[in-house]
């Protein structure tokens, strides 16, 4: 048991030499002694595949076999493990991973979109060919989130899983709160700093977090989760004043991905949430990620760390390689094949929560009466209200913030539709769930 | 790879049926379906050993083989795995674990003292007999701390590891801060609530945290750490006013176990520390534990959760059983045998930190001059000072709080000795390290 499956070198073929690929090569070099001590083997790169042979990546790739076509890594008999760092749910990344698994070669990947969208088919390929597919780096960067959920909490029935899964959104919301700047200007700064992509859609519209939540939920509940069953909202509609109002009410706003197992199936959603300001998740700021899981026996666990970047991601990719070198590998969803059937999804309109509701309304008598009448008629009861006097910039439109008691999401949706239709309501209402987190 | 090593049942012999033992039996029963799905095997208890056959433990043990002598579990051919939940570094627990390993039977234990004091010898026994020894529950209860450090961060060179490792101390310090009560009265309440033992020594004097730190450091640095090389202080000397002063200065006081690898060897200490109030560790309150690790590539990771209790501990014990059932097991310190040699310890007087110093002094002119002259002569420079007017209760003795800039621990120790000798200083000085955490 305690010896690795082999003492021969573990030989890698790496596809994709961006920041993460270069980071993995750097880590393997810097920590070669330590990796040997921990696995009893050397872990060495023998071949790579990337587009540009001449680009300076800050690491020496001169002695390595170079393939223009990543698929050639699969047929190279010297490659024991394929490391896929190309990215993207389709195209060359998918083709490479499928080919490697079919050839019985273990794969390590950081590709969240691929696993989120094709996890079910990949799990079958992996099992059928006895080729492990490891993807620790796909969720929350350097945080060992996959290992925590699939192995560390493997004894417990998990009730929910999720957390702060996108560092770009968390950074933007943190800076908006701290500086009072609006979304667009903070996004611009984040792009300049390299914390947001030129095309920020995947991050700020919640898709990246949804990919990660899909994977985490699949692991927590031992079954593939259909990506399109995850309800996804981003943060573009959050105003700087929402962050200020939330603070006044004792909350912070975080983009959370949360999946809960209910009696009616799995509810998975990525949405901005109000979180009590003293809750552990509320303290996780900037580019940091945090994964929470709650189990019947273990209670609540939270892991926080760097969710992106060359170093943390390289650490996660290489931790998977250490597992392989040590002869450790388990099935994709952490269950024995045969028991895998897709999880039933529950509509997000089922269930209750308290809500924050921010409106912009005309500043004249009777407006509050009109709005609260709609809420009453929909069965939504109010816990508190903030109203700010008009200032010169926004008058005659003023913000009106309402916080509800726990109410059904369906009732809330009905109320919002009617409120939005009121002529005194001048902007689309913003509704944010309140999560105990 | 993806199938377990066997599909036959994994049969357990459990020694010790206290709250944790009963919790494990309850969990195995409650989650039997899920454990089977995750491992492809049933995990069943076939035999137990405990002192009192008649005690009501809230679980049904009537169908199980009962041994008065725990060692009989080892010779029972139906027992595949010995689960040691007796506790204690010596006596029956140690004898049982050694006998099981010698017989080639895997062992799962929650016994931190045993692993901390005898880890080196047990690692050899485990390797020599190809019998895994797993102890996830020994550190930080339900938090998968062992797995995080030994596997999740296995790719990185760790610079430090530690955290809030004793829930009793964290609970006491939290309540002292929140209520202003002194140590003795909060301890009494904690004992009444079951958060502290009748004999609280192991917890409040830091030994329990030191056991856990010894284990974590061994895993982080891949070598056994001598328990007596860990510097240990408890929390008895912390006054309610220290918590109040810390708060005024922007800090909280936490009992931290921290091990750092330095150029001169390993520094490991369990001491109360001042932690900036917005640092993640400062937010971990009550009976919660948190483990931090910092690596060159991964940066800083923190995991928090419940550090004790039947449910969380049973979750950790059973996670080890899931690993065994899945055919996963690695060497005790996470390195291949042969490379294991004890880590070199560095005296804690080596190195620098900022310090909080709380004195009680006579309330008369010239006192501050006398004290600051000592600090100056020892090369300790001050960053800030709090002095409170005498009140009727304490006069003519008043507290004087000094915060230093970074300075060597040796200089600080020299200064404290001289200050303690001053006739105007009426109580033993309290010196607390400031950690960035």
TrEMBL record, chains A, B:
Enzyme Commission number, as recorded: 1.1.1.3
Pfam families, sorted:
ACT (PF01842), Homoserine_dh (PF00742), NAD_binding_3 (PF03447)
Gene Ontology BP annotations: methionine biosynthetic process; threonine biosynthetic process
Binding sites annotated in the UniProt record for NADP(+): 15-22
Q: Where does NADPH bind?
A: 112
Alphabetical list of Gene3D superfamilies matching this protein: 3.30.70.260, Dihydrodipicolinate Reductase, domain 2, NAD(P)-binding Rossmann-like Domain
| Residues of the ACT domain | 356-433
Query: Looking at its record, which EC class is this enzyme?
Result: oxidoreductase
Q: Which residues bind L-homoserine?
A: 197
Per the UniProt record, the source organism is Acetobacter vaccinii
Q: Which family does it belong to?
A: Belongs to the homoserine dehydrogenase family.
GO MF annotation terms: homoserine dehydrogenase activity; NADP binding
Please name the PANTHER family in this protein's record.
Answer: HOMOSERINE DEHYDROGENASE
- Annotated active site: 212
Q: Which UniProt keywords apply?
A: Amino-acid biosynthesis, Methionine biosynthesis, NADP, Oxidoreductase, Threonine biosynthesis
**Superkingdom as given in the UniProt entry:** Bacteria
Q: In which pathway does it act?
A: Amino-acid biosynthesis; L-threonine biosynthesis; L-threonine from L-aspartate: step 3/5; Amino-acid biosynthesis; L-methionine biosynthesis via de novo pathway; L-homoserine from L-aspartate: step 3/3
What is the protein named?
A: Homoserine dehydrogenase
Q: Which residues form a coiled coil?
A: none
